[in-house]
Amino acid sequence: MHRARKTTGIIILSWNKTLLLSTAFFIFSGAACAGKITCPNTLQNALTTHRLNDATLFQGPPEKHGELMPDNDSHIVWTLQEYQDYGKKMGLPLWLVCRYENTSKTVELKVPDSANQCKAGLEDNSTRFYAFCE
User: Fold this and answer.
1) Beta-strand relationship, 37-38 and 129-133
2) Is the separation of the CB atoms in 112 and 35 below 8 Å?
């Protein structure tokens, strides 16, 4: 009888470790994935598919028009550290706004606090536009 309790305790302890490790895995894997956002390549509107063709970064809600300029004119890249610091102090998170051909509809994505950089542009040897923050 004493032996059965000990075995049961080991099984429960083992089960609790498994549960704990599984929970930790899901929490940390989700956190790693949450660090990157990407504009969808297309936007479906009724029967029409619109291709991504532009992206803009905003400090605060996009409707307040706090558009941020890229770091330079040759590449569409935003280095985020100063914007992130300011946003935390002022309660103005960053938003990536994805724009699409032949429609005024947009996709607005909140930039994760952990993101360091946003990029946008044409893929190499392609006419396909991309935009993401990580």
Assistant:
1) antiparallel
2) yes
Nearest in space to 102 (alpha carbons), one of 41, 38, 39, 43 = 43
Give the pTM: 0.73
Q: How far apart are CA 89 and CA 100, in angstroms?
A: 32
Together in a domain, 50 and 115: yes
Say yes or no: 24 and 75 in one domain. Answer: no
Q: State the residue for tokens 């029409």.
A: 48
- How many domains would you assign to the chain? 2
Same domain? For 21 and 84 the reply is no
For 6-32, what is each residue's pLDDT tens digit? 444 444 433 344 433 343 443 343 444
Give the length of the chain. Answer: 134
The domain of 13 spans 1-33
Residue that the structure tokens 């542009």 belong to: 121
User: H/E element holding 100?
Assistant: strand 94-100
Residues 80 and 28 in one domain: no
The tokens 């960053």 sit on which residue? 94
